[in-house]
Every structure is written in C-alpha cells, then in structure tokens.
Amino acid sequence: MAFRSRPVVGIAGETLDFALEAAEDSHPNEYLGVLRGTPAAEYDIDGTGDLITDVLFIPKTTSSPVQATLQSDLVPNDSHTVGTVHSHPNGVLRPSDQDRQMFTKGNVHVILGAPYERDCWRAFDREGEPATLDVYDVSLPDPEDFFDFTQADIDAELEEEGRR
Question: DSSP class of residue 133?
C-alpha cells in the first residue's frame, strides 16, 4: 500500500459529510474506509499539501460493533492514499491500541463517532496524536460526471498520448 508523504491540509466538507453518513448507515457496526487526497492547489487552497476529497470502501472489508478490518492488498497502490477513516459506534473519539497499529501507514486518520454529526469526529497523525484537519467548503466534481465520456473521447485521448 503506497501512501503520500506530503502533508494533508484539510478535508472537503462534502467528503466529511459522506463519511459521516456512511458511518451512520453502518451503525451499530464500525465503518472503515481509505482516504484519498488531491493537491490542495487544484482547489485554490494555499499550501503544498493535499486536500482529502475521496473515501474509498475496500472490497472484503469486514465489520462488527467492535472492529472493522480491511484487506490491505486490495487498497489501491498509488500515491493518492493519505490515510484511513473509521467509526466508533460507542462515540469515543480516541484511538484504541488496535487503531494505533493501523495508523502507522498514512499521514492522517479520522475517527467518527455516534451520533455522526458534523462535530462528532477527530483527526490523528500516524502516531495516534491529535491532528488539526480543517474542513474546506469546496465544490468537488460530480460523481455522475466521472463516467461521462464516449468511445470517441477515449480514442482521442489515446491518440493524443500516441497509443493509437
């Protein structure tokens, strides 16, 4: 699993809301996802770090009221991965010893707690120490637009790259 080494400057509000909703939907079981970042400059945010813009659910993730686990070999092996997000259905916003073991990979880890409202989360660094993670009100691309392309668009891109 590759993780970016650049700092994480914040999280998009839409991304935080998505994670909180996913955690609430998983309740009373824990929720676990992988955080991915985009260079903050792409959103006109000062700084050289990344803005968390995506949460990935990894196939074969298992969950119960006391823990969630994922198969690390299924996490995308690229530099966009910046950390993890998971929930504590009991509402405790402190990392457990097991959480701290998971935190060794990635720069930021977010714990969400019941009742999963906008103030029911905390960020931690790879050592499990509290971290500051600002929430940014930015417009993220519409997920519907992700697949908004035609075969002609693919052919043009391949031709531009010299692969056709």
Answer: -
